[in-house]
Write a structure and sequence with these properties.
The structure is a homodimer.
Chain A (H helix, E strand, L loop, with lengths): L13 H15 L10 E3 L5 E9 L5 E2 L2 E2 H14 L4 E12 L4 H18 L2 E10 L7 E11 L15 E4 L5 H11 L15 H4 L8 E5 L5 H13 L2 E5 L7 H10 L13 E4 L1 H13 L5 E7 L4 E5 L5 E3 L13
Parallel strand pairs in A: 5-6, 10-13
Antiparallel strand pairs in A: 2-7, 3-4, 5-7, 8-11, 8-12, 9-11, 10-12, 13-14
Helix pairs in contact in A: 1-3, 2-3
């Protein structure tokens, strides 16, 4: 293989076949048959669901992950919070001419490892190479298929006044880790992305009565998920600042640079809404899975809005995000 | 809506929600629930298959289509040539900051129209905005799910010596149409992309005994599909130049600019391999569907290679494509 990807690697001919065989197919294993136009999906009984996500993170590698592991976990987690078992992935790679082959190989190896950890098989893929100056090194898009119990009822419409809001762990790690990697601050290294599959958190809740809704707080963070809940349920989400876990390092960087951790992306957390009587069980199951989970608020009747009850006993509205403080973190 | 897409349209907040609601969700219709993390797939009996493709065509609009219709038909056609009925699509849009909103709206409208024509529903999507100078205006990736008869047996392994090779219509239209649009030659307008769903060509063949293999000759064209056949079946594909349909306009441009039409992309054609006794029936069914179909060659024992029997009675090898004469046509 050449040291850098060239336009010829994307033209459907011999170079492209070599790139796909040496970089992608070998690492992604026997699940990927590069000769097929369409790959068979062997689906167990239940209701199939599908989700898709594109990834344009900069830099491509950061403490705790890279665009490859992110592309797996981001899509796997959308399936998991829908109550499904993730099974299959497809992968699109849009490579910018000149990308270092070694970097591409590291990313694909990491992607393959993340897929193994999450229990999903990459069954189809496509590669395009775009000219220098028309890409960001590497963009990935993944589509995931999973299956959930036909009786699974999770969704905004299940949310009731008085329900508890929970989070599976500290928020903002991913956003700050990527930002520090990008800016090459001296601080980097101390904060690591939480990029991981959440299947170990969602699977134990599969049959829990009283679980209403789950979502992974990625782009836009916890505050954006809270807004989605408030807006869809037409209720007020009240969060208690003292209960929301934020790592000291993340809090320190936020203070220094003026970020609000509640708007920063996580890539391995779950926000759940549960009936009050089920909330403790969610916490217990999550903590048993090793998560630093917390009950952080509740859904109450009132105008669709998100209110933060502050440490000093005040209140502030968490407004809907308008301009991203940290773009391109996923 | 603003006249141009900004980075804030990709940050997970209010602007992004507005972009998705006004540009995507309205046109894509009721199939797309933007509130879901994962969309349900209601699959009829049979074997499910999945395929994925990314699209980086330049220019974004060309005679006969645009990146939107291409993104639908390219993925729909991969399902169709696998013997499946295309049912569902997911859509990723990677938008470059500064893209004209009106252009994006035209492309999404065209995409929605192509999806309706092909009988598929767009059920999930994701939008990213990348900074100016790190994209090509708009890149799309689509993933398709379809269902085929559990007994469907199509594939390289079915090909036998003596089988006929057929094509459903003239080759090279798409490649030349896009090239002319890009170069803004005076010739443009006379040649139109063949971009279309091939479901009307593949569906009638669903139960045809003796049909071995189908593929749509996109990137790399007819010659590349012939190579795939030769290489997978370890046989020689012999094509007869006089039988391969090429429109006079395409032939003229190829002659003038030194292109070989057999390597140029089609986006609405099917190459089929069929048992000799089934070949006439394939032609009859395709012609009944309005296609200018032709029997263009056969698969014979011999070294894995592609031989063109020329008009003047000679022979030339069609080598595997190494460097694309026309990059970024899909």
């Amino acid at each position: 293989m050449e040291r850098h990807v060239t336009l010829a690697h994307g033209n459907g001919g011999r170079f492209m076949r070599e790139l796909i065989e040496t970089v992608f197919a070998q690492r992604l294993g026997s699940g990927l048959d590069t000769q097929l136009d369409a790959a068979p999906l062997d689906l167990p009984p239940g209701a199939a669901v599908i989700t898709t996500d594109a990834f344009t993170v900069q830099p491509l590698e950061f403490p705790g992950g890279d665009i490859g592991s992110l592309a797996v976990n981001g899509t796997v987690n959308d399936l998991a919070v829908s109550g499904a078992t993730p099974l299959y992935l497809t992968l699109n790679a849009i490579i910018e001419e000149g990308l270092e082959t070694a970097l591409l190989e590291r990313v694909v190896a990491s992607l393959a490892q993340a897929a193994r950890e999450a229990g999903v098989r990459v069954v189809a893929g496509d590669t395009k190479v775009v000219p220098r100056g028309q890409g960001g090194g590497l963009y990935l898009a993944t589509t995931g298929v999973g299956v959930r119990a036909a009786a699974c009822r999770l969704g905004f419409s299940e949310i009731r006044p008085g329900d508890a809001v929970l989070v599976s762990g500290p928020v903002g790690d991913h956003g700050i880790a990527v930002m520090l990697a990008r800016e090459q601050f001296e601080l980097s290294g101390s904060i690591v992305s939480d990029c991981a599959p959440v299947t170990q958190l969602t699977a134990p809740l599969a049959k829990l009565a009283g679980l209403r809704f789950m979502r992974d707080p990625t782009r836009g963070g916890l505050a954006t998920v809270a807004h989605d809940i408030a807006s869809a349920a037409q209720m007020c989400v009240r969060l208690q600042e003292t209960q929301i876990p934020v790592r000291p390092g993340v809090r320190a960087v936020c203070k220094m640079l003026g970020y609000d951790p509640y708007y920063l992306a996580c890539e391995g957390r779950v926000v759940a809404v549960a009936a009050p009587e089920a909330a403790d069980e969610v916490l217990r199951l999550w903590r048993r899975a090793g998560a630093e989970a917390a009950r952080i608020g509740r859904v109450v009747p009132g105008r669709a809005s998100v209110v933060l009850e502050t440490e000093i006993g005040g209140e502030r509205f968490l407004e809907e995000l308008e301009d991203d403080p940290l773009p391109r973190i996923c």
